[in-house]
Design a protein that fits this description.
This protein has helices at 2-21, 23-36, 76-79, 82-89, 97-103, 124-127, 150-162, 166-182, and strands spanning 42-48, 54-60, 107-109, 135-137. By secondary structure, the chain is mostly helical. It has one domain (1-182). It has a two-stranded antiparallel ribbon. Strand 1 and strand 2 form a beta hairpin. Helix 1 packs across helix 5 (97-103).
Length: 207
């Protein structure tokens, strides 16, 4: 009942309230991104959503466009400025995704939408993460975020898919708020963000 009829209306209402309440914050961040990082202010990227349908996800820009002598983008660790790191550590860069929730591309809670190029790398178990709308936060985000392995993330994503519920969603929402304040799991142990997913070794994923 909740998954089929109540989750989407709740998402819409929560996103709308959040946009109204946080509108001053959205305005301030917009101005600061324009001053410190330039245009475009909003970073747009194609991501797979429900049933692997591709949508455009919105985030505040956190990196520069610095390139090497060959025109290739420099590593994330170089292009990620102190201001960009602040936006990520506070999750302020994620606020434009509230508009994705209004549009129906995303949910407040669900597996995080990953890169389109990862789609061919998923096994059948991992693909189950697309049986629900992707979320602004999810079970993996409140259990380690970028500090846990890809396999652990996918296991938590599928665990969420199998147990979608009202109480569970609100527990994740409250845990997300807590994680934002303590700024846990922003980076992996070896990367400024998260290492690219290159597929899972055979037998490494829980079935």
């Amino acid at each position: 009942m909740y998954r089929r009829f109540l989750k989407r209306p709740m998402d819409f209402i929560l996103a709308l309230i959040a946009i109204i309440v946080l509108s001053p914050v959205l305005l301030i961040v917009t101005i600061l991104v324009r001053i410190k990082l330039g245009s475009p202010i909003i970073f747009k990227q194609k991501r797979p959503g429900l049933n692997e349908k591709i949508f455009t996800m919105y985030k505040f820009r956190t990196m520069t466009d610095e390139r090497d002598e060959n025109g290739e983008l420099l590593p994330d660790s170089v292009r990620l400025t102190k201001f960009g790191s602040f936006l990520r550590s506070t999750s302020l860069d994620e606020l434009p995704e509230l508009f994705n929730i209004l549009k129906g591309d995303m949910s407040v809670v669900g597996p995080r939408p990953l890169l389109v190029q990862y789609l061919p790398l998923y096994n059948d178990y991992q693909k189950r993460r697309h049986e629900v709308r992707p979320g602004l936060s999810g079970l993996a985000q409140v259990n380690g975020r970028n500090a846990i392995s890809w396999e652990d993330k996918f296991n938590l994503d599928v665990e969420y898919v199998d147990n979608v519920g009202f109480i569970g969603d609100w527990k994740i929402i409250f845990l997300t708020i807590k994680k934002v304040f303590v700024r846990e799991g922003i980076s992996s142990n070896t990367s400024a963000t998260m290492e690219p997913f290159r597929g899972s070794p055979s037998g490494s994923v829980k079935l």
